[in-house]
Design goal:
Distance between the termini: 65 Å
Radius of gyration: 22 Å
Oligomer: single chain
Mean pLDDT: 93
Order of helices and strands: HHEEEEHHEEEHEHEEEHHHHHHEHHEH
Shape: globular
Number of helices: 15
Largest sheet: 6 strands, mixed
Strand order of the largest sheet: 1-11-10-9-12-13
Number of strands: 13
Low-confidence stretches: none
Length: about 450
């Protein structure tokens, strides 16, 4: 246990080092120098809260694609009028650009048909594309690299808004104008700031992870344009932060991933990878005959991807004395003779992996806030979206404890709040902000 605790520990000195290294990488990224943090200008600032109208939000953030029609009332109450959700099948994730974007256009057409909307109706659209993008305008950006298991051919280096617009034309959806290319993290910030003016950071902690924050234009030395407010939301792409202490499980997982050498923080923090890290630890404990000794079904943990983060959450939510939920979970796997000690160890492994994820996440948030406000003189609301923060037992509480340990009484200046639909409602608000600066149709 001591060996495992050492492997997954994040000490106070580790946290301070993360802050220093984050600030260094942020500075380089804002200057356009080589950095693991891309620091991508979003071309938008926070909303005024008075935006009105109906807008379409498209959300491609992982294995699902959503289409939403959102109405803004100008009083801080965005409402979803209609929505559709589709699974992005592996054939599209690993296929061609035309195949993927035609699939997206077809799902929009389906929603229109279901709600009796003429396919030539005029809407301004925000496209939430939650992958690293070199954004060249409010409604243009080239894919830097795929993450989250996508390998679709013909998209890397291309303008994803252009690819979507061409697919919309092929489908006959001639009234749709893509007004903004959005990131789910930027949408998370915008959705919360529509009603909370202290919100200046957006974070996603789900299948993947990322963050954005409000930056002064004077600090974005690579930015050559202007802004009426002197501020802009910067998409950090912090999942790629690479100055972290990794252990052998992290290194092996990275080597076997679709994108080795990239997304070190994401592979340590996000829901896509936590279950796999835990599985590798459990497998080693089983191979050394430390766990489930003599039990049937031990090969259930042998296959890559066979233990999901959702199962970790189930295991850690079991507060019973005999860990009966864990016992039933193991029985369902075919392991019928687990001991209480086996079940306690299984829960402990999940706790070690998830606690490290929460600690690194909190350290990264602290780094961004102390960059913006070194003395923590102002209130900061952190809008957080994603199942880890929302549903994983104790994840948010562990993050708050790290902030208190690090910042002491100044931690009271930071408020972390769940933002349920930044990639939907937030994207629609971004479309409204962007459309207000575009020619009327």
């Amino acid at each position: 246990m001591r060996d495992l605790e050492n492997l997954f520990s994040v000490t106070p000195e580790d946290i301070r080092r993360i802050l220093r290294d984050f600030h260094s990488e942020m500075q380089k990224g804002l200057a356009g120098s080589d950095s693991s943090l891309k620091m991508i200008p979003s071309f938008v600032d926070r909303p005024t809260g008075t935006e009105t109208g109906r807008f379409i939000a498209l959300d491609l953030g992982g294995t699902h694609f959503r289409v939403l029609i959102v109405e803004l009332d100008g009083k801080g109450h965005p409402a979803v009028v209609a929505s559709g959700l589709s699974v992005v099948e592996k054939a599209y994730m690993e296929g061609t650009a035309d195949g993927l974007f035609d699939f997206l256009a077809a799902r929009i057409d389906d929603l229109f048909a279901e709600n009796g909307i003429d396919r030539s109706a005029h809407f301004d659209v925000a496209f939430t594309f939650s992958f690293p993008v070199d954004q060249t305008g409010v409604a243009s950006g080239r894919l830097i690299q795929w993450t989250k298991g996508f390998t679709t051919r013909g998209v890397m280096g291309k303008d994803v808004v252009k690819l979507l617009t061409e697919a919309l034309a092929r489908k006959g959806l001639t009234g749709l104008r893509v007004a903004a290319l959005a990131n789910d993290t930027v949408g998370t910030l915008v959705e919360k700031s529509y009603t909370d003016k202290d919100c200046d950071i957006g974070v996603v902690l789900g299948t993947g992870t990322n963050a954005c924050y409000v930056e002064k234009l004077s600090n974005i030395s690579k930015w050559k344009g202007g802004s009426s407010t002197g501020r802009m939301i910067v998409n950090m792409e912090w999942g790629n932060f690479n100055r972290l202490k990794r252990n052998r499980y992290d290194i092996d997982l990275d080597h076997e991933s679709p994108n080795p050498g990239h997304q070190y923080l994401e592979k340590m923090v996000s829901g896509m990878y936590l279950g796999e890290i835990s599985r590798r630890v459990i497998r080693d404990l089983m191979e050394s005959d430390f766990l489930f000794r003599g039990a049937d079904g031990k090969n259930r943990f042998a296959g890559k991807g066979s233990f999901e983060t959702e199962r970790m959450s189930l295991i850690q939510s079991d507060g019973s004395k005999d860990l009966t939920t864990v016992e039933q979970f193991l029985r369902d796997l075919g392991i019928h003779r687990s001991t209480l000690c086996d079940r306690q160890w299984l829960k402990k492994v999940c706790d070690l992996v998830s606690t490290r994820a929460a600690t690194v996440s909190a350290a990264a948030i602290a780094a961004v806030i102390t960059w913006m406000d070194p003395d923590l003189a102002s209130q900061h609301t952190v809008a957080v979206d994603g199942a880890l923060f929302e549903k994983y037992p104790g994840f948010g509480d562990k993050m708050k404890a790290v902030l208190v340990d690090l910042l002491h009484e100044n931690a009271s200046q930071i408020k972390m709040e769940l933002s349920k639909d930044g990639s939907g409602k937030g994207a629609a608000i971004i479309a409204a902000v962007a459309a207000s600066a575009m020619p009327k149709r």
